[in-house]
Amino acid sequence: MANHHESPGTRLRLAMNQSCIAIPGAFNALCARAVAKQGFAACYVSGAATSVAAGVPDVGLLGLEHFCRQIREAADASGLPVLADADTGFGEAEMVRRTVLDYARAGGAGLHIEDQKFPKRCGHLDGKELIPVDHMVEKVQWARKAAKDVSGELGFVICARTDARGVDGMQAAIDRAAAYVAAGADMIFPEGLTSEAEFETFAKAMRTLKGPDPRGGPYLLANMTEFGKTPMVPLERFGAMGYSCVIYPVTLLRIAMHAVTQALETLKSEGSAASLLGAMQTRQQLYDLVGYKPGMPWEAR
User: Fold this and answer.
1) Among residues 33, 72, 112, 165, which one is catalytic?
2) pLDDT value at position 117?
3) 3 state SS for 93-162
4) Quick one: CA dihedral 284, 286, 289, 292, positive or negative?
5) Which domain holds residue 82?
6) How would residue 78 be classed by pLDDT, with cut points 50, 70 and 90?
């Protein structure tokens, strides 16, 4: 693994060059710190988790500054390369450039932008609409130039997500992805695939292209979101199919909010938290996670 003097994007690339890596979604800075403590190579800032944690649905309602704050806090707390969702790029080509620059300055390692029309939908819902291919190609080109300007040729990672599988079919997804790679995308994120066979077909098509992955072609990202169109596939299997990373965007938030809901039900019915103590992180465990010793000065990372 690279040292921390290298850029976050370079560290992410080096990790993916070694193996297919799991990238858990961190919905706040404390969660990102826990991801790092468990030994993961990177963490993810999800548009869906960021939105619902702010109490709004994942339809592109939050602004660039909100996402940059999430990225900065996750990167500072964890010390990990942070891959972040950028939805549709917060606007047209000029805003895509600003997004890349601001994400990189916030400590991000890379981002993905998608080819949906605004307002976007969750990638595993029906009714999505796509922007024209040439429109997305322009966005990728502007993103690639901004990434090069801010971090050099092999720094900040530009990932292009295509939602075409659920709109126009698999071949359309492959064709769009090829156009995005030609426009400068380092990584491709095929959203809404429905079987291992589809993931394998897509990966084989991408390996015929030129790209930064040592195996040939672009880096490839798989999305393991629960309760969607994609079956649960193990990380090792994705690696065997040629994928570079697997994101788990809302997993930790779903676990946490399920526990929160159950705890609130207990507190409401019993009028006490006494029966919940065994399910809680202790005070000492929380202090250990943030690296705090009472009475001692605490140094930020």
Assistant:
1) 112
2) 79
3) HHHHHHHHHHHHHCCEEEEEEECECCCCCCCCCCCCCECCHHHHHHHHHHHHHHHHHHHCCCCCEEEEEE
4) negative
5) 8-256
6) very high
Q: From the candidates 20, 72, 85, 102, give the one annotated as an active-site residue.
A: 85
CATH number at residue 159: 3.20.20.60
Does the pLDDT of residue 119 top 70, yes or no? no
Give the strands of the sheet with 157-162, arranged side by side: 21-24, 245-248, 219-223, 187-190, 157-162, 108-114, 82-85, 43-45
Q: Is the pLDDT higher at 187 or at 5? A: 187
Number of other CB atoms surrounding residue 170 within 10 Å: 17
Q: Is 201 helix (H, G, I), strand (E, B) or coil?
A: helix
User: 162 - beta bridge partners?
Assistant: 190
- What is the number of domains present in the chain? 1
Q: 152 — alpha (psi -120 to 50), left (phi > 0) or beta?
A: left
Residue 278 lies in a domain: no
Q: Name the packing angle between helices 8-18 and 133-151 (round to 10°).
A: 110
In a domain, 249, yes or no: yes
Instruction: Identify any residues that bridge with 189 across adjacent strands, giving them in sequence order.
Output: 161
Tell me, yes or no, if 11 is annotated catalytic: no
Q: Look up 102 and say whether it is catalytic.
A: no
168 is catalytic: no
